[in-house]
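Exercise 7b. C-alpha cells:
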C-alpha cells in the first residue's frame, strides 16, 4: 500500500496538466510499479508454498519449502533470480488493470456523490460513503482481470521448462484451460478474491481520505501542496 499510494502521488504530479492540474487516467498505471518491485516475487513464493503437498500424518514427509524465507532461498539457489520474476508481465498487467479500474472507479464514484450532494461538493465525503465506494471500486478490479490472474497463478505454480518461452507457456496454459475446463475456468476463485480485495480497498480508501484530510488541515508541510483528485 505504501508503494501504491506513493507511486500514485508521484504519477499524479508527473502526469498532471501543467495549467489545470487535472490528471488523466494514465496515472493509474502505478500498478506496474508495485508489480515489479514487490508483488511478483512475493506472489511466486506464496504460490509455491500453497501448491506444495505435505502430509503432517507422515513424519518422513518433509516439505520442500519450510517457510517463506526458505522458499525464497531455495528458488533462488535452484532456479536463479529470474524464477522469482516468472510471470512479471502478467502480474504487471493484472496490477496495472486492477489499479486503473480501482482508482478510476473510485474517483468517478466520489465525484458523482459529491455532485449529488451539494453539501460535500468541496468537502470530503462521510466515512461510510467513502467505505461504500471503496468497496464497489475494489470489487471491480478483480472482475476486470480474473483471467489474467488465473493464468498467472498457474504459470508461477511450477518451475519453468528448458527451451520454453514465457509466451508459449501462457498460450499453452490458456489453451489447456479452455479445452479441458471451459470458459468458466478463467474465473475460478473470483468470489474469494473479491471477498479479500474489496473490503481491503474499502478500509484503505477510508483511512487514506481520513489521514489526507488531517494532513491538509494541519500545519505539517506536504510535498506538492494540497491534494487534488
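Sequence design result:
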Amino acid at each position: 500500500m505504501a508503494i501504491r499510494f506513493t507511486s500514485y502521488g508521484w504519477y499524479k504530479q508527473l502526469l498532471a496538466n501543467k495549467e489545470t492540474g487535472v490528471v488523466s487516467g494514465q496515472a493509474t498505471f502505478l500498478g506496474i510499479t508495485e508489480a515489479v518491485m514487490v508483488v511478483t516475487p512475493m506472489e511466486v513464493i506464496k504460490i509455491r508454498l500453497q501448491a506444495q503437498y505435505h502430509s503432517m500424518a507422515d513424519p518422513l514427509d518433509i516439505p520442500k519449502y519450510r517457510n517463506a524465507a526458505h522458499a525464497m532461498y531455495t528458488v533462488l539457489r535452484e532456479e536463479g533470480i529470474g524464477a522469482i520474476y516468472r510471470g512479471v508481465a502478467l502480474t504487471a498487467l493484472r496490477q496495472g488493470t486492477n489499479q486503473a479500474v480501482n482508482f478510476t472507479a473510485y474517483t468517478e464514484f466520489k465525484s458523482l456523490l459529491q455532485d449529488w450532494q451539494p453539501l460535500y461538493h468541496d468537502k470530503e465525503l462521510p466515512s461510510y460513503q467513502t467505505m461504500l465506494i471503496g468497496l464497489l471500486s475494489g470489487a471491480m478490479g478483480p472482475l476486470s482481470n480474473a483471467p489474467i490472474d488465473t493464468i498467472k497463478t498457474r504459470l508461477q505454480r511450477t518451475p519453468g521448462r528448458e527451451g520454453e518461452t514465457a509466451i508459449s507457456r501462457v498460450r499453452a496454459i490458456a489453451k489447456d484451460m479452455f479445452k479441458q475446463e471451459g470458459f468458466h475456468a478463467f474465473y475460478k476463485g473470483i468470489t474469494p478474491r473479491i471477498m479479500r480485495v474489496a473490503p481491503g480497498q474499502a478500509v484503505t480508501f477510508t483511512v487514506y481520505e481520513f489521514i489526507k484530510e488531517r494532513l491538509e488541515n494541519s500545519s505539517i508541510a506536504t510535498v506538492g501542496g494540497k491534494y487534488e483528485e
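Instructor comment: The CA atoms of residues 16 and 186 lie 36 Å apart. The helical segments are 2-15, 31-51, 68-79, 88-116, 127-157, 166-181, 190-217.
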